[in-house]
Amino acid sequence: MTPPALICPSCHGELISKATCLYCPPCGKEYPLRDKIPLFAPEMDSFYEGKFTQTHYLYPETVRRFPVLKSFWRLERMLNINARPYRVLNRLSLPSGGEFLDLGCGGGTEQFTRLGKVTGYDISLGSLQMARAVYPEVVQGNVLQLPFADNHFDGVLASHLIGHLPRSEKIIFLKEIIRILKPGGFLILFAETDADHFLFRFARQYPDLYQKDFIRRPGHLGLEFLPDLDMLIQSIGYLPVKRVKLYGFLWAVEHYNHKFSSDYGEQSRFFRGFHSCCRWLASRAFFRETADVLLGIVAPLVLGISSDRQIGEWFLAYQKPEK
Ligand SMILES: [Zn+2]
């Protein structure tokens, strides 16, 4: 069955569903199906394939098994720094029960399914096979050529994606999204930006390590400071709706070790101590969650007094004009 919104990304022709592929009569292109997932960019991406496959569930496995823990978990999520992006998303009034697209969905985010029907889209087939656990529909392809019909979605979400695109690609990406959004539809970005807080200044004292840990390893080829990114988005025609600071230098405990590899520890005693401390906390669930809750309580206060340049991750919401 062809989901109604799918079109040929190359000529925008209507697709015909065949046994093993989707076929575009106007241009003759065939898009294979694997495990019933339509592949619009079937050649494997050496960087992204299988890289971001983790599914973000509403409840961890223990809580799913023991529903009595659910209210406790919900309370924990109201405070935990890890859940900050979702708390901010929940405060945005969106059309309920609409159609949403999660661009660069990785393994999928169950929280997004509370908004309405979510389609997952990613370059990595391995990620989509995981995302299928939470999204009813998943589609594989490149974010610069979207196989979706014009004016289709009530909202497009892109989490940790925009910083992966160089500026020239951001323009194509943003034009594609505005094409597939309904008039009045929302673009919601959890956007990583360049930042200038004290931890990044430390990190940049080792330019080779900074390039490796902060640019090449996560694929952050297109980090820009917020004003440049915001100006670009508005220049495409989006109207700004909401902007909230998500993270400056306060992150969940585990993220410190993800961001600073142990190579930093070999360079500086500060990072060595910091690393051991974070590793110790991260490996003990009770202390880790307690630390993340405390960080979550402190974060809004610290973010409130941080300048925009000190923020490395933003919640940004825009709307396609009604006319
Ligand atoms: Zn075509």
Question: If you had to describe this structure to a student in words, what would you say it looks like?
Answer:
A hairpin with a 6-residue loop joins strand 2 and strand 3 (30-34). The chain has a seven-stranded mixed beta sheet with strand order 7-6-5-8-9-11-10. Strands 1-2-3-4 form a four-stranded antiparallel beta sheet, with no helix packed on it. The protein has helices spanning 61-65, 70-77, 84-90, 125-131, 167-180, 198-204, 207-216, 226-235, 253-259, 262-267, 269-282, 285-305; strands at 16-17, 21-23, 30-34, 37-38, 98-103, 116-122, 137-140, 153-159, 181-192, 239-247, 313-319. It is 36% helix and 20% strand. Helix 9 packs across helix 11 (269-282). It has two domains: 1-34, Ubiquitin Ligase Nedd4, Chain: W; 37-319, Rossmann fold (3-Layer(aba) Sandwich), CATH 3.40.50. The mean pLDDT is 92. With 323 residues, it is an alpha/beta fold. Zinc ion binds at residues 8, 10-11, 13, 24, 26-27, 29.
Keywords:
Rossmann fold; alpha/beta; 36% helix; four-stranded antiparallel beta sheet; 323 residues; Ubiquitin Ligase Nedd4, Chain: W; single chain; binds zinc ion
